Predict the structure.
Amino acid sequence: MPLTSNRIEQMATQSAKKKSRGYRKGETRAKISELLADFWPSEVRAIHACRIFLRRENDCEITIKETLEAWEGRLGRKWRAEKMRIDGQMQLKEIEQHKSQVHEKEGRDLDWEAAAQDWIECHSRTWRDWWESQPAACPASTFCL
């Protein structure tokens, strides 16, 4: 089919429709926040990165619901496994540091299990809140895309 002005206009219209498919259909910041409320902050960052990737991959706007379907369907499981590995490594380092600090400050030696229990009771909540705000808490976005 030759490229006439009508054909060019038709192609532009089709392209615009494709790009606007699902664009913020019923989405508000409040609705997006509600849908993401049960995820850790690092996972929310990964989901937003996933949405950007999906937009580029599909050359159109992607709703948060479509993003969550892709996340839960093919990406989230691998991301969470990697996240757990990273989190576990970091917690082990924190417990080792706690064990050393107790020895230095109080002069008592804790076995590893006692140090872990003490760290969990005294520091794990504040550490988790801090850790989730760190970029390193989120596995590389390319890991799951």
About this structure: The radius of gyration is 23 Å. The chain has one domain: 16-140. Confidence is low (pLDDT under 50) at residues 3-8, 15-23. Residues 16-140 form one domain.
